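EI: anyone free to look at a 185-residue chain?
SC: sure, send it
EI:
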Amino acid sequence: MVEIQNIQIQNMFDMKPYLIFLFCLSFTACGTPQPAMQLSPPTVPSPVTTPSTATPKPEGRAENGGAAVLENTYWKLVELGGKKITTSGEAREVHFRLYPSDKTMKGFGGCNNCFGSYEADKLSGAANKIRFGEIGATRMACPNLDGEAAFLNALKSATTYAISGETMQLFSEGKVIAKFESVYF
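SC: here you go
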């Protein structure tokens, strides 16, 4: 007879209930993640909701006549390919932010964090050049990755952008491919 922490095991069959319990517990420990974004048909725009984490306002906002600036701004996705984007429940919203100090982009695509590099040039007129380099993402498994793939593809294909007030549009071949709203908190 072997004694292990006050549990006496006389033979291997005495351990069977414990092993079955541990086996079942290992499959019930993880829940199914909910999708973070859903594509929906165009609707009337809703007011901006602010996430709970604090981010400073961009330094150049006041110098830009009160309008948002490209860099150091939290850009929340509100439309992709002509379809309004809604964030369900307590899911994180799809967004990105550009960091001018090292020309990097960091964001969230709906399931995975994303990151990469970018180049942007201000031009005279309404549209300005933008180009995203290689974009990487973490590899979380989520039920629906189509929306995230469409978001990342929009970033990769963007060639120009325009900011009007607190809204930014990304363009590819002269067509709007995504719209974002600036969020300050």
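EI: Residues 37-183 form a domain with the Lipocalin fold (CATH 2.40.128.270).
SC: 👍
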